[in-house]
């Protein structure tokens, strides 16, 4: 379909596609099988200004929005879901600073993020606080000019590799979710440690691990917004991040479709390419249609977000839901089309 992209948007898309083709695809098998963090590829992406797409020009970014970021993310996901997850998670960790940071905090951190010199992570999930984010137990106690954090975060993308962390912790347990606050932490802060690197079934080029706080003292200047705003900050951050999950799914699904079409044209059975069989062509047609629908929905949601509406939670959730569901369906169909080859790691 034609989406009437501007010249700048087409350039962002083309640059990301080139990096996916030239830098990511040749390395993705090695990165995934050996669970290697893609630092060299991230440097290539940083040199192409992909980390600064949504950062205002005031702080060294390109000054674009959610839509342009998703254009890049889709192409990176087409190359490798693990690299794309790492890239997307850095945006997730940056959004609380961009949306709720004061001028000093933005000047301190955003230029480094925009240049890709420092990547970020977002710390909300805990052992007993997954979809129920209100159940977090990590605390941040006011102690003069500092806050002292104690607790742990689980399944955090970029854990141990990121330089900057935005963390949600309770400053007043009695108030429940109204007692949660958001903080900026830096790798190397006293009392801030990293747990084990998780062994995942997939997206292994992306690091997932735990964050541990043992009397971690951080200056009061690292509080984002005001005390008690943590849950609001977390929810708004996740709203901005959800379309990214959706478009990551679209990029992954498109890669599955491309591989399926390529294989179906080459694979011959009963004297003809299997793409000529109606059962196969119907699967490919459904995949292509659903992927384009997911792309159109996510693009529309991103453009809507960039108009700065008061509330877009429902639409952001729709984009995440549909894009990720289509990714699951497309990859399952791809395995079926490739047959035995689809179950081999070479493919």
TrEMBL record:
<dbReference type="Pfam" id="PF02770">
    <property type="entry name" value="Acyl-CoA_dh_M"/>
</dbReference>
<comment type="similarity">
    <text>Belongs to the acyl-CoA dehydrogenase family.</text>
</comment>
<dbReference type="InterPro" id="IPR009075">
    <property type="entry name" value="AcylCo_DH/oxidase_C"/>
</dbReference>
<dbReference type="InterPro" id="IPR006089">
    <property type="entry name" value="Acyl-CoA_DH_CS"/>
</dbReference>
<dbReference type="InterPro" id="IPR006091">
    <property type="entry name" value="Acyl-CoA_Oxase/DH_mid-dom"/>
</dbReference>
<comment type="subunit">
    <text>Homotetramer.</text>
</comment>
<dbReference type="InterPro" id="IPR046373">
    <property type="entry name" value="Acyl-CoA_Oxase/DH_mid-dom_sf"/>
</dbReference>
<dbReference type="InterPro" id="IPR036250">
    <property type="entry name" value="AcylCo_DH-like_C"/>
</dbReference>
<keyword id="KW-0285">Flavoprotein</keyword>
<feature type="domain" description="Acyl-CoA dehydrogenase/oxidase C-terminal">
    <location>
        <begin position="228"/>
        <end position="347"/>
    </location>
</feature>
<protein>
    <recommendedName>
        <fullName>Cyclohex-1-ene-1-carbonyl-CoA dehydrogenase</fullName>
        <ecNumber>1.3.8.10</ecNumber>
    </recommendedName>
</protein>
<dbReference type="Pfam" id="PF02771">
    <property type="entry name" value="Acyl-CoA_dh_N"/>
</dbReference>
<keyword id="KW-0560">Oxidoreductase</keyword>
<feature type="domain" description="Acyl-CoA dehydrogenase/oxidase N-terminal">
    <location>
        <begin position="6"/>
        <end position="117"/>
    </location>
</feature>
<dbReference type="Pfam" id="PF00441">
    <property type="entry name" value="Acyl-CoA_dh_1"/>
</dbReference>
<feature type="domain" description="Acyl-CoA oxidase/dehydrogenase middle">
    <location>
        <begin position="121"/>
        <end position="216"/>
    </location>
</feature>
<dbReference type="InterPro" id="IPR037069">
    <property type="entry name" value="AcylCoA_DH/ox_N_sf"/>
</dbReference>
<dbReference type="InterPro" id="IPR009100">
    <property type="entry name" value="AcylCoA_DH/oxidase_NM_dom_sf"/>
</dbReference>
<dbReference type="InterPro" id="IPR013786">
    <property type="entry name" value="AcylCoA_DH/ox_N"/>
</dbReference>
<dbReference type="GO" id="GO:0003995">
    <property type="term" value="F:acyl-CoA dehydrogenase activity"/>
</dbReference>
<keyword id="KW-0274">FAD</keyword>
<dbReference type="GO" id="GO:0050660">
    <property type="term" value="F:flavin adenine dinucleotide binding"/>
</dbReference>
């Amino acid at each position: 379909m034609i989406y009437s992209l501007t010249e700048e948007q087409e350039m962002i898309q083309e640059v990301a596609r080139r990096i996916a083709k030239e830098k990511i695809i040749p390395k993705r098998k090695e990165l995934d099988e050996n669970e290697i963090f893609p630092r060299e590829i991230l440097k290539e992406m940083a040199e192409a200004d992909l980390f600064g797409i949504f950062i205002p020009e005031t702080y060294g970014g390109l000054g674009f929005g959610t839509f342009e970021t998703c254009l890049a993310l889709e192409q990176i996901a087409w190359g490798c879901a693990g690299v794309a997850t790492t890239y997307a998670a850095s945006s997730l960790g940056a959004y609380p600073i961009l949306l709720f940071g004061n001028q000093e905090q933005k000047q301190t951190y955003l230029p480094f993020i925009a240049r890709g010199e420092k990547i970020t992570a977002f710390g909300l999930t805990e052992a007993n606080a997954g979809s129920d984010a209100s159940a977090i137990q990590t605390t941040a106690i006011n102690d003069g000019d500092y806050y002292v954090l104690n607790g742990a975060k689980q399944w955090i993308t970029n854990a141990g590799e990121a330089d900057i962390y935005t963390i949600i912790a309770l400053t007043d347990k009695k108030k429940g979710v109204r007692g949660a606050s958001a903080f900026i932490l830096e790798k190397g802060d006293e009392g801030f440690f990293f747990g084990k690197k998780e062994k995942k079934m997939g997206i292994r080029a992306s690091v997932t691990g735990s964050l541990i706080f043992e009397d971690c003292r951080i200056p009061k200047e690292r509080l984002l917004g005001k005390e008690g705003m943590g849950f609001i900050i977390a929810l708004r951050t996740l709203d901005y991040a959800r379309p990214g999950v959706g478009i990551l799914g679209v990029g992954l699904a498109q890669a599955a479709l491309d591989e399926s079409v390529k294989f179906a044209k080459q694979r011959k059975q009963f004297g003809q390419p299997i793409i000529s069989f109606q059962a196969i062509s119907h699967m490919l047609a459904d995949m292509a249609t659903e992927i384009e629908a997911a792309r159109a929905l996510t693009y529309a949601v991103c453009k809507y977000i960039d108009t700065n509406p008061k509330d877009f939670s429902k639409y952001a959730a729709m984009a995440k839901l549909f894009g990720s569901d289509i990714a699951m369906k497309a990859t399952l169909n791809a395995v079926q089309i490739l047959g035995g080859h689809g179950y081999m790691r070479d493919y």
